[in-house]
DNA sequence: TCATTTAATTGACACTATGTCATTGACATA
DNA sequence: TATGTCAATGACATAGTGTCAATTAAATGA
């Protein structure tokens, strides 16, 4: 059912996407121009605009897969019956979140750069944030209902606090300017989150 | 000792700075062009480049005053002898940090936008981060030496965790998308930081 | 006072990038 | 074979940047 023409079109779009990814990695997002991309893809200038609205659009398409993976991590189940169990589940989710980002280090760097540059990509990232935060909010509500967590705290506020810390350490790790290992970071974040800096020790 | 010419020059630079600030507020950082600025300042196009290297340079100059104020908040003394006292000092510092940002709401929004756009401005902001983080690191070391804080935690890691939360809530408040009041946010952040989510209650 | 030097100001220019659109030509269709 | 369709194209209009030679007006000094 797919004729030569359609194959050709799909092929061209793929070529452009691959070229865009390569150029993004080599030059960064800001430095990349449409001309760089079409030159690498060996297509005419106008061809880029047949398949993509603009530079952002290339990255949005490339982001889709990673976005899906983040959404999966965000929606992991959380039904602990003890504090110990809760801590284990939390550590596990953080590890998945950070590992996923680290597996796509270069790509995440491009996304970081683009967030500050393109409102559409910022909105995409905000979507990921919102999914994690609402999922964590549910988790805290559950923990409160089981008398595991401090019932006086506002779940959505605590969820944001927790996610923001995770996100910032993620960017730190992506940039490679953390002196500590990922595991050390995970352990510390979790201890503070669950027990606090001034807890009994 | 200042002659007419020098006065003229200072006046022109001031005019440009005021114009830049106004245009940044009206159009945002990205949308603003040099032509917008010189048009508002009623100077020739080339004049902008006599006093400023480029658009970033305008904002860098405008940032200086706020940067100083952040540096002051970062270097507040911290020598508590009880946990209660520690908590009070922490709450106080956070309140000053968030208040300062909120007093300059529109300006902070511009800075946020520019951080993602200009590596130089990002570096400036990273400087503020670093000052806060190293100051908080010292505070934690002090608290550990007085047996107030968990001695097993790595101070610089905890400091980053704490500052990142503060920073992210600051941007939230700046954007006006927090449902909660600043005081609620401060209280929650501090409780989690010092006692943890799962602490005795 | 007037000629000369010095310095602030200027806009035209060269350059780079974007997004559009009329044109082209190869494939599909009858 | 003739005709229609659509992917591909690059020239063009537009918009922004940063530079620099020319201009203008103040400072200097004989």
Low-confidence stretches of chain A: none
| The CATH homology group name of the largest domain in chain A | Tetracycline Repressor, domain 2
Q: Which band does the percent of strand residues of chain A land in?
A: under 5%
Percent helix of chain A, as a range, is over 70%
CATH C-level name of the largest domain in chain A: Mainly Alpha
Largest sheet of chain A: none
The number of domains of chain A: 2
For the structure shown, list the relevant keywords.
homodimer; 201 residues; mainly alpha; Arc Repressor Mutant, subunit A; Tetracycline Repressor, domain 2; 2 domains; 0% strand; DNA-binding
Polypeptide structure, described:
Two copies of one chain form a homodimer. By secondary structure, chain A is mainly α. Chain A has two domains: 4-52, Arc Repressor Mutant, subunit A; 56-195, Orthogonal Bundle (Tetracycline Repressor, domain 2), CATH 1.10.357. Chain A has helices at 4-27, 34-41, 45-51, 55-74, 83-103, 105-115, 119-145, 155-175, 182-195. Chains A and B meet through α5, α8 and α9 of A and α5, α8 and α9 of B. The first copy, chain A, binds a DNA duplex (30 and 30 nucleotides) through α1 and α3.
Task: Tell me briefly what this model is.
2 copies of one chain form a homodimer. Chain A contains 9 helices and no strands. Chain A is mainly α.
Please give the structural blueprint.
The structure is a homodimer of 201-residue chains.
Chain A lengths: L3 H24 L6 H8 L3 H7 L3 H20 L8 H21 L1 H11 L3 H27 L9 H21 L6 H14 L6
Helix pairs in contact in A: 1-2, 4-5, 4-7, 5-8, 5-9, 7-8, 8-9
The structure holds a DNA duplex (30 and 30 nucleotides).
């Amino acid at each position: 059912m797919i004729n030569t023409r359609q194959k050709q079109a799909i092929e061209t779009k793929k070529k452009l996407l691959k070229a865009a990814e390569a150029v993004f990695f080599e030059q960064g997002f800001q430095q990349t121009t449409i001309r760089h991309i079409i030159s690498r893809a060996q297509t005419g200038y106008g061809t880029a605009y047949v398949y993509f609205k603009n530079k952002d659009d290339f990255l949005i398409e490339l982001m889709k897969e990673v976005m899906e993976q983040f959404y999966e991590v965000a929606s992991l189940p959380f039904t602990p019956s003890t504090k110990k169990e809760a801590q284990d589940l939390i550590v596990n989710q953080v590890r998945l979140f950070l590992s996923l980002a680290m597996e796509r280090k270069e790509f995440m760097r491009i996304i970081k750069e683009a967030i500050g540059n393109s409102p559409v990509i910022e909105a995409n990232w905000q979507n990921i944030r919102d999914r994690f935060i609402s999922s964590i909010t549910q988790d805290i509500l559950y923990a409160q209902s089981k008398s595991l967590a401090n019932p006086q705290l506002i779940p959505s506020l605590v969820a944001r606090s927790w996610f923001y810390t995770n996100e910032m350490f993620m960017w730190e790790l992506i940039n490679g300017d953390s002196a500590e290992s990922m595991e050390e970071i995970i352990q510390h974040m979790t201890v503070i989150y669950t027990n606090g800096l001034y807890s009994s020790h």
